[in-house]
Specification:
- InterPro entries: Phage_holin_4_2 (IPR007165).
- Keywords: Membrane, Transmembrane, Transmembrane helix.
- This is Phage holin family protein.
- It holds the Pfam family Phage_holin_4_2.
- This protein is mostly helical.
- The protein has one domain.
- The protein is 80% helix and 5% strand.
- It is built from four helices and two strands, in the order H-E-H-H-E-H.
- Helix 1 runs antiparallel to helix 4.
């Protein structure tokens, strides 16, 4: 059940950021759900493979920033995979990654309480 809640919250965050930022376009909430699902799958697979050497290189001291950068790269990858989702530039992808990190932290704190 937590997976579905996380998926819907992440889709809502992507959809809201797309509404606020002119350089991010999402056609519908269904597309946002698809984007959130792909982000989760790719973050769990490719993201782990990218984060591991970077965290070793930085001795784990910059793990939050490494996670943000890797998530932004994966957002750009999802941009290439999903036709109805467009992110123009790396900075908007970084903003989406930051919004997802903040939203995930708030959601995790609410579910643990």
């Amino acid at each position: 059940m937590d997976f579905i809640i996380h998926l819907l919250i992440n889709a809502a965050i992507v959809f809201i950021v797309a509404y606020i930022m002119p350089s991010v376009h999402v056609r519908s909430f269904g597309t946002a759900i698809w984007v959130a699902l792909l982000l989760g799958i790719l973050n769990a697979t490719i993201g782990l493979l990218l984060r591991l050497p970077l965290n070793i290189l930085t001795l784990g001291l910059l793990s939050f920033f490494v996670r943000l950068l890797v998530t932004a790269v994966i957002i750009k990858l999802v941009d290439k995979l999903v036709r109805k989702f467009e992110v123009k530039g790396f900075w908007p992808a970084l903003v989406i990654a930051l919004a997802l990190a903040i939203g995930g932290t708030i959601l995790d704190n609410m579910l643990l309480s």
